[in-house]
Amino acid sequence: MRHVPTIRGMGRPRPGPRLREWVKVCPGAGVTGPALMRRGRRKTGKMVFEKPQGLIDVTQRKPATRPALRLAGLAVAAGLTAGPAASETLESALAKAYGGNPQLNSSRAGVRATDEGVAIAKSGYRPTASISADIGSQYLEGRVSGAQLAQTTTPGGAGLTVNQTLFNGFQTDNNTRRAESNVYSQRESLRSTEMSVLYGGVQSYMNVLSNTATLELNRNNVEVLEEQLRQTRDRFNVGEVTRTDVAQAEARLAGARSQVSVAESALRTSIGTYRQNIGVEPRQLAPGRPLDRYVPANLDSAIAIGLQEHPQILSALHAVDAAEAQVKVLEAALYPTVGLQGSVQQRYDQTFPGDNFLSASIVGRVTIPLYQGGQEYAQIRQQKEVVGQTRIQADLVRDQVRAQVVDFWGRLEAA
Question: Does the pTM of the predicted model rise above 0.85?
Fold first, then answer.
């Protein structure tokens, strides 16, 4: 019987050269996503193990085919790294997420809705005009100057009314400033959502690659342990090892198969997350590339950039501006208002059949509030407290961003 080499100090057999050739030539490169989950099944004893599709069982080939297989493996590896048309790159996956992610599209719609608040606020500068018309029937019976009167008329008319606000305590100005601050805040919130979605897309992309490699590694480990178990049983049959050695080899194999099941579950989860973030199923994912050129030189630079450019901080600062503008809007209720109204009316059959007249007027109106129960002052005090709250919230966001930068910098250095 052929001597089986063992690992020094471990007392366990190691895989033979033919099995090591399997592990070396067939690492499962480029097989990701559902393609890895859909494998052909190969039975070994009573256990069922999924064998990757498209891999060549080198234990069944002839020695003469080894150079050809090595060349084929190199060609496949080169095709996977140099064939962007057949592989999904990280950039293309993020482009799909940026264009079709529902969370991003919802945030964009929210920004467009907030943009209309500026047009609504600026409408206070413009006049308002309305046209009215009416018609009816009127019956009149009685005496006029001793003469009996009984007539039916159809009074009607039309009119145009134009109103223009001349002064309202700068309420329109402050409403416009508040609406613009809300737009800026919403746009920064959209940037924050973009960062979160793209970060989630990168995570799901790399998780699929990582879990695919982990699953392939665990499956190769099962192959190794199956070979070790077979060799251990052969040695047991010739009396070289005991029943305990066989039981230990079986236990190791069972644990490895359990790890395969865990890895398959993790891969399915990462595929679902990928589909949620990117919008499509993962197919032939290309390896990710390092982004060292985008990383700041040191931690202090990273913190400075984060405090200056992070969208959550900018959104909170714009929210402070909007809250301060709202205080000015409420204070406008204490100021007098000045307005101008012009109207033109044409009336028919008002008193007698056939009569008509045209009337026009321009009226200026000034309204000065004297006492309204103290409601305006309470609303102003309430809004000032809201301003203080938003300022504290901005400080809280700064602290959170600083903590996140320090946390991720530490993870980067640890990696």
Answer: no
